[in-house]
Amino acid sequence: MEEFMTAGFWLAVGQIIMIDILLGGDNAVVIALACRNLPGKLRTRGIIYGTAGAIILRVILIAFALALLAIPYLKIVGAVLLLWIGVKLLQPEDEGDHNISSSDKLWGAVKTVIIADLVMSVDNVLAIAGAAQGAHQTHQLPLVIFGLLVSIPIIVGGSQLVLKLMERFPVVITLGAMLLGWIAGQMAYSDPAIKPYLPESAFLGYAVAAAGALLVLVIGKVMQARQKPAEAG
């Protein structure tokens, strides 16, 4: 129980909530699109059932991811993927990304939500599993479940507010992308394959995490700068 009262636990919870809001905004759009043709009385049930199914599926995937991250070198691979996800987060979105078919049947809409969430959840699962590494091993999955339970209602109920905040304050997206780079650095530093060869230094761990955050920022801004002349041309 003491683990749940530590600063590290609540820092990881905060990271999970921010990751899920930043990377899960699309999921709220998917839910709305999949349920848009349901009759009014079934629409709310479709949203609730679809969201519940998506949460359960994501918890299962993250449980597998937490186990897999104990395998040597997989954290390094995961760190590289997270760096790329962070860089992509800084790039402007293409229009027409949400090609989601809707259904006028309750379970058809629920199935669409769950399948779409499965396809779109790779980044969320990897990032959340990385954030949970900061907690004690026995508390990682409860931490993930708690973070998801808090963040999913925020996404579903306040997605429009979140999107407007991101549009008005682009720095939120930049900070979120750098957070993914920070987690990537932490993951790479704690990989079982290289951990025995590194000194036990909290400062070095923070330095590697900070390097990951800066790497995402620099690469993301360079790619943005290259895209602008191409669009102008």
TrEMBL record:
Question: Where is this chain primarily localised?
Answer: membrane
InterPro entries named in the record: Integral_membrane_TerC, Integral_membrane_YjbE
Where does this protein reside within or beyond the cell? Membrane
Q: What PANTHER family does the record point to?
A: MEMBRANE BOUND PREDICTED REDOX MODULATOR, SLL1022 PROTEIN
> What keywords sit in the KW lines?
Membrane, Transmembrane, Transmembrane helix
Q: Which organism is it from?
A: Polaromonas naphthalenivorans (strain CJ2)
Q: Which family does it belong to?
A: Belongs to the TerC family.
Under the heading NCBIfam families, the entry gives: R_switched_YjbE
What is the recorded membrane topology of this protein? Multi-pass membrane protein
What is this protein's record name?
A: Integral membrane protein TerC
